[in-house]
Amino acid sequence: MSADTFYGPDFELLSKQDPDIAAVLLSELKRQQTNLQLIASENFTSRAVLATLGSTLSNKYAEGYPGKRYYGGCEEVDKAETIAIDRAKALFGAEHANVQPHSGASANVAVYQAFTKPGDTVLAMSLPHGGHLTHGSHVNFSGKWFNVESYGVRQDNELIDYDELREIAIRTKPKMICSGATAYPSLIDFEKIRAICDEVGAIMWVDAAHFIGLVAGKAIPSPVPYADVVSFTTHKVLRGPRGGMILAKAEHAAAIDKAVFPGMQGGPIMSAVAGKAVALAECATPAYQKYAKDVIVNAQALAAALEKEGMRAVSGGTQTHLALMDIRSTGVTGKVADERCGAAGIVMNKNSIPYDPEKPGITSGIRVGTPATTTQGMGVPEMQQIASLISRAIKTEDAKAHSEIKSEVHALTARFPIYTA
Ligand code: DSN
């Protein structure tokens, strides 16, 4: 299909005014349509969400909150933000929701600000074991401004070591304990974390960015009943616009809102806030609940099929939307695998595995996720085919072979078209 059919009449205007950027929009649309998207944190939003993002709400400044803004003319965007808040509270059974953070990282800045002061101790999962930059990496504000202690996974089963976590919490007395990760394929025991937080008097913060969409679809247990605060992005499995969100107990509502605005950012991006509302309504449907369950079934099928190809699934498999594969048996590093798959039209990322002997820029692993391919309608047979394509791509350095695999990728994605007119 042509881009003007998809983007509508405005694309013709853009093409005339700015052919350079119009060409980027067109080629990115084609890239998403024709390649395999296995980045665990990416998805294809609905056209309704895209339409909302490209709306005149983008023009409006609205510092403050509904009914308490610093600018006039906010009566319409107030409605959008109120709808988003109400939908978030209803979908997750949350006492409070702040829908303004521009991203997951900025939501996390607000969480630190609401509950801690620079120099305070925070306990979070280490990045090499699956955590996130904002969980205390020394190159991030969190590691520079806070005393972040880290817990990890056990070497024998690659699951969170709750005994170690408790021991570190008792020894270091953190103000806040963060659970949540970017490359942890298993479920987190929120009841255990709550008990540890209560024992040491820490705030329980869950960074649910990766799995909140599975919670929204009732496919895995929710952290909301346990946590003081839950931060997340809205564009991963949740399938909304790029952005962040925070849920909290009512007693923390004022602290969270103050930390987001004026503490962390100025005007919210109201087109994104409205887009979050649209996505939250989509998440409340039976179709989305089926989708969330299918995402996990597909991830499990993909992990199992990659194991049949000789790779090893970290922690023995997955209970979520992603699998972390130890690919040392193939004789190539994560970096090389990433490049070879890229040449074959398979988009995923190299990733450290727990206790990885390789540097973070090289790695012994790859991370594959199923949110996008499941949105396309792919199922278990396609996951098996994808595992075979990945394996073939990784195991050869021959450009001609990569080009042949790419043709097979294009044939597969053509059977599951996205963004058709
Ligand atoms: N960049 C995200 C991911 O890919 O996991 C985390 O923020």
UniProtKB/TrEMBL annotation:
Its main location: cytoplasm. Its cofactor is pyridoxal 5'-phosphate. One of its GO terms (molecular function) is pyridoxal phosphate binding. The keyword Calcium does not apply. GO terms for biological process: glycine biosynthetic process from serine; tetrahydrofolate interconversion. Gene3D superfamilies: Aspartate Aminotransferase, domain 1 (3.90.1150.10), Type I PLP-dependent aspartate aminotransferase-like (Major domain) (3.40.640.10). Pfam families: SHMT. GO terms for cellular component: cytosol. It is found in: Cytoplasm. Keywords: Cytoplasm, One-carbon metabolism, Pyridoxal phosphate, Transferase. The keyword Transmembrane does not apply. Transmembrane segments: none annotated. Residues 14-390 form the Serine hydroxymethyltransferase-like domain. PANTHER family: SERINE HYDROXYMETHYLTRANSFERASE, SERINE HYDROXYMETHYLTRANSFERASE 1. Homodimer. HAMAP family: SHMT. Belongs to the SHMT family. This is Unannotated protein. It comes from freshwater metagenome.
